[in-house]
Amino acid sequence: MNTSVTTAEDLTSRQRIAAVVAGSAGNLIEWYDFYVYAFTSLYFAAAFFPAGDRTAQLLNVAGIYAAGFLIRPIGGWFFGRFSDRQGRRAGMVVSVIMMGAGSLMIAALPTYAQAGALAPLLLLLARLLQGFSTGGQYGAAATYLSEISKKGRRGFIASFQFVTLIGGQLSALLVLVALQQLLGDAAIRQWAWRLPFVIGAALALTVLLFSRHMHETAPTGEAMVDAGTFRALAAHPKSVAFVVSLSASGAICLYTFTTYMQKFLVNTAGMTTAMASMVMTGAVIFFMLLQPLIGRLSDTIGRRTCLLIFSGAMTLGAVPLLTLIARAGTSPLAAFGLVAAALLILSFYTSVSGLFKAELFPSHIRALGVGFAHSVAAAIFGGTAEYIALLCKQLNQESIFFWYVAASACVAFLTALSMPEPSREGRL
């Protein structure tokens, strides 16, 4: 295992590729474990919340999903400080192992029929553990991939954070689709929903093998005195504000058009669960392939231009896209095309998401600045997006949520307008 501190210029092309693959693999495992909860919740909701209709059950599960987000700022602070002081690699490895422990806990949970109110309480504790872990992984991974890449290629290389984040979603979807094909809905609802969590726990252990190929990029020297402290972070209020504002809209749009979209297609558009899973599998593959393309484009046109395209197009497009998707339940092809259009717009944010944030902070507080500021926005806005959507539906005012998505994008557009170009004026 390499313990020396490395800069991008120190690495050969082969070493850099190995480091990017290793860092990205841990990120993929982390997000598989996190998203598998969202994609299997349609099946296990009744096991933990047996009373009420489907929307009421999903609201309860979404509430626990949101709780996993609310603890993310604490994880962002803890692992941000840890990664700035102990190293990006160490932060990534510890967070993935912690995520795997949460998955193993969910796989072994008793149901409401077996343990009563203790069952949803234990589910909540497991999600809090996973949310704490996720808060640390984002900042550490964004920082590591940004620092390991060369100038002029950072957009392309750093985009692999979201390639693997989406890959985690895709892996969770593919596991669910495989179970649907092999076992059927009844078996999944009864017991097989636990299998994806067992797989996630096992995958988390493999991060120890990948870590051997990661080269440490954490700062050294006098900057370490203030490394990872809020005192040092307070000297960069504009950077924090830019990250929080843009991350808020990015998180709302991401969770609306990925994890929540499967439920939206079933619960609002009227698709079968299996068909919704197939539509989302195709859309997520398309979304994943877009990341390096637009990441490479950002090296030419700039991160700020990408953010303006995302926020401007989503401001204008969120309401009509969601309205049309709600009516596309009888046409899987139309639903796929509409979701893919939304994900194309979103890609102008996700492909540069970790990089532009890393470019806004100096190295000794980079993991803290990215991880904590992003986690605050993700907790408040991303974690509650699904709950707000379901609540609006339950109140028969679902279109209010569509306008909420558009309004968040409008705020992001105004923020991007006032932000300097990170690739030129940033601190990497």
Structure description:
The protein has 428 residues and is mostly helical. It has one domain (8-205, 236-418): MFS general substrate transporter like domains (Growth Hormone, Chain: A, Up-down Bundle), CATH 1.20.1250. It is 79% helix and 0% strand. It is built from 21 helices and no strands. The protein has helices at residues 13-48, 54-70, 72-86, 88-107, 112-115, 118-148, 154-158, 160-182, 185-190, 195-205, 207-210, 230-233, 237-257, 259-267, 273-301, 303-326, 332-350, 353-359, 366-394, 399-418, 422-425. α1 crosses α2 (54-70), α3 (72-86) runs antiparallel to α4 (88-107) and α3 packs antiparallel against α19 (366-394). The radius of gyration is 20 Å and the shape is globular. The two termini are 25 Å apart. The model has no long low-confidence stretch (mean pLDDT 87).
Note the topology:
Layout: H1 13-48, H2 54-70, H3 72-86, H4 88-107, H5 112-115, H6 118-148, H7 154-158, H8 160-182, H9 185-190, H10 195-205, H11 207-210, H12 230-233, H13 237-257, H14 259-267, H15 273-301, H16 303-326, H17 332-350, H18 353-359, H19 366-394, H20 399-418, H21 422-425
Helix content: over 70%
Q: How many helix segments?
A: 21
Beta-sheet strand percentage?
Answer: under 5%
End-to-end C-alpha gap: 25 Å
CATH superfamily: MFS general substrate transporter like domains
Number of strands: 0
What's the shape? globular
CATH architecture: Up-down Bundle
Query: What structural class is derived from the secondary structure elements?
Result: mainly alpha
> Residue ranges: pLDDT <50 for 5 or more in a row?
none
Average pLDDT works out at: 87
Give the domain tally: 1
Question: What's the multimeric state?
Answer: single chain
